[in-house]
Amino acid sequence: GNGVSMIIFAGIVAQLLPGICQLFPSDVLEGTAVNGWISSGVLFLALLIVVTFVTWFYGAVRRLPMQYTRSDRNYGDESYLPLRVNVSGVIPVIFASSLITTPQTILQAFVGSWGDKPWYKIASNIFSLQTWEGTLAYGLMIVLFTFFYAFVQVNPEKVSENLQKQGSYIIGVRPGDETKKFLSRLLNRLSG
Q1: Which residues sit opposite 168 in a β-bridge?
Q2: How far is CA 96 from CA 15, 93, 102, in A?
């Protein structure tokens, strides 16, 4: 089930040591520069803080308190509907990078025959992460896919129907259409 994730992880690990070596000048790697060690420590500390924050944020859950109307269900007072704060995960980044790199690869194949055309240069700028146009397009695609995939993952209409079928509702929200609207607003806020 995690095959693609394992391949991505293996690719990251394989490029980790050469990437780290490129960050530092040779005198830091040889141990002769005190300032180099200080900057290395600061960089490592910043990396550790970012990884900790991302891990904490990825595991964050918004708990919606639930109430059950049927008396035959005994779920206790602690029933809730969990919604991850980062509903989309990393899927929007993967989608956006695929939509940027695929046209870029195709354009590279035709650089010899169409490289001097104006439309080719514009398309190359849009699908290159080395230009501000490409970076802007990439960022916009990540934002759009974040909202799109959040609503694919948690379909407010289906969740509302399922809650009604189970005889349950979110406390403070009426079952049915209001639950659907509430979940849609909540997903918009969590994604934004």
Answers
A1: 68
A2: 22, 5, 10
Distance CA 88, CA 13 (A): 24
* Distance of alpha carbon 3 from alpha carbon 10, whole angstroms: 11
Assessment of whether the complete model's pTM goes beyond 0.90: no
Question: Starting from the edge strand earliest in sequence, which strands make up the sheet with 168-170, in order?
Answer: 80-84, 61-68, 168-170
Radius of gyration over every alpha carbon of the chain, rounded to an integer in angstroms: 24
In the predicted model, residues of the chain with pLDDT beneath 70 are 1-2, 23-37, 70-78
Q: Tokens 């169409």 label which residue? A: 114
Q: Whole-angstrom Cα distance, residue 159 to residue 166? A: 11
Using one digit for the tens of pLDDT, what is the confidence trace for 22-32? 766 655 555 55
Q: 3-class DSSP state for residue 128?
A: coil
Torsion of CA 26, 28, 32, 36, to 10 degrees: 140
pLDDT, position 116: 86
Question: CA-CA distance, 159 to 128, in Å (whole number)?
Answer: 39
**Tens digit of pLDDT for each residue in 34-57?**
566 677 778 789 888 988 988 888
**Residue 150 in tokens:** 């959040």
| DSSP designation for 169 | E
Task: Tell me the one-letter amino acid at 164.
Answer: Q
What residues does each domain of the chain span?
Answer: 1-59
